[in-house]
Amino acid sequence: MDGPTAQRGGPGVVVIGAGFGGLAAAIALAQGGAAVTLIEARDAPGGKARRVPGPTGPIDAGPTVLTLRGVFDRLYAAAGESLDDHLRLIPQAILARHWWPDGTSLDLHADPEASAAAIRDWAGARAEAEFRAFDRATAQAFRAFEGPMMLQPLPRTRAVAAASLRSPALWPMLMTGRTLARDLAARFTDPRLRQLFGRFATYVGGLPELSPAVLGLIWRAEAQGVWAVEGGIHALALALAALARRLGVDLRLGTPAVRIAEAEGRATGVELADGTHLGAGHVVFAGDPAALAAGLLGQPARAAVPVAGTQPRSLSAQVWTFAARATRPAFGPDLIHHNVFFSADPAGEYAPLARGEAQGAPSLYLCAEDRAAGPPPAGPERFEIILNAPPLSPARPPPDGEFDRCRDTTLTHLARFGITLDPPPGPGALTTPRDFARLFPGSGGAIYGLSPHGVLAAFRRPTARSRMPGLYLAGGGTHPGAGVPMAARSGLHAAAAILEDHASTSASGPAATPGGTSTG
């Protein structure tokens, strides 16, 4: 029997998936004395933080924004190392640059006073006052939710309720039926600011008209700092993989899992595509929980996750990754690292997505990957452009001609701002929801897991302990949710649960109930 053993005095663990959740779980488990085997189906770590080859170098094709870097600083510090010794993180003085078809543009800054001043100069004193009130309210929401929600392995609803009682400014955000769109409509007179901050719902795969108002606190995560990673976010995954190996993790790339083995209802290891069996005392699945619910890792694991923790699905995306020369926008300043080009129809922008259809007039996010630390190169530069898109649906298969429609939509929208791309991206540069479904089995093309729609969505996400003893969960589809730092935190929760359960079982002897218990 091949696989990890507890030679180091800790549990033997197999982690499936080397995204940020799996990497963080493997690192924390190794620090806790576990013998860890980390398997990844693809030939590189990172999960959705992948990259593709390009004529001017590798191009990030996944997340581009890094916030809450302290999650990774602490991960390295616990191993007696410093993140800055292994990777260059570049703080962004301008968080993002935003353009509207009316000929205006707005920068939001790492310095909150600079953001307030920019809004005053752009939209007047009333808009500035409304922004300051929103900033204060979301800061309170972030403080109230970070401890009992983001940092805890289980959401602590009573702690959130107690914090809200002490902070009346939070009450509107927590009202049943108060969506992010309704909350912003009550806070901002200028529709452009409603459009700007409403877009944060899409960062976790939701629509502002259907997502809870509390998602406005995403602004405060960005306001605490945005960093670019030299080499792209994928470079952070490579650095974490190297740290895992230094800690003794057996990282096996190009090693897909086909089944979670079980005996008497408990996870006992993992079977690989080549027929190898990896025995383990504990298993971490760091993929989309919907893959388990669909039976893709075997029938016994199918009941490990409640269906309500995987359905309905979040948004997907159409993602361009390519190298080209770009003309300067016809108005306002030049492109920076993070750019948003808004739709002229904020009221109807998301209506097609709510119907499960592609947008006809979307806003575009454009990452100019070579502009994180200075001016662009003289020749072609690397770009990633993201358009929100619905996940796959059996009732509504993707229409033919998706590439042509998406390219026409993208190039036409950028042309409204005076931007042309030379050469325009070709068919191989586009990743569609159908591609995401193929890359991440069980996801249905959704790239954020469970939809965030509804006031209780955050409480329905699966947590670290699954319903199958010995099987634990990590990744952006589990608590505390989507995003690079949140996925890493999910891995830390899974590692803590395993080490706690192993210690409890070891102390209690054979009579102890093995593995995890349901917290779904």
Given helix and strand content, the structural type is: alpha/beta
Number of strand segments: 20
Cα-atom radius of gyration: 23 Å
Identify the overall geometry: globular
The proportion of strand residues reads 15-25%
Name of the top-level CATH class of the largest domain: Alpha Beta
Helix content percent band: 25-40%
Poorly predicted tracts of residues: 510-520
Q: What is the domain total for the residues?
A: 3
* First-last Cα distance: 32 Å
How would you characterize the overall build of this protein?
There is one protein chain. This protein has 520 residues and is of the alpha/beta class. The chain folds into three domains: 12-64 and 232-311 and 448-508, FAD/NAD(P)-binding domain; 111-223, no CATH class; 315-439, no CATH class. Helices cover 32% and strands 18% of the residues. It contains 16 helices and 20 strands. The radius of gyration is 23 Å and the shape is globular.
Outline:
With 520 residues, the chain is of the alpha/beta class.
Can you give keywords for this protein?
520 residues, disordered C terminus, 8-stranded mixed β-sheet, 20 strands, single chain, alpha/beta, FAD/NAD(P)-binding domain
Topology of this structure?
Blueprint: E1 12-16, H1 20-31, E2 35-39, E3 51-52, E4 59-60, H2 70-78, E5 89-91, E6 94-99, E7 105-109, H3 112-123, H4 125-150, H5 157-166, H6 171-174, H7 180-187, H8 191-198, H9 218-223, E8 227-229, H10 233-246, E9 250-252, E10 257-263, E11 266-272, E12 277-279, E13 282-285, H11 289-293, E14 316-326, E15 338-341, H12 351-354, E16 364-368, E17 381-389, H13 402-416, E18 421-422, E19 430-431, H14 433-439, H15 457-460, E20 471-473, H16 484-508
Helix pairs in contact: 1-10, 1-16, 3-4, 4-5, 7-8
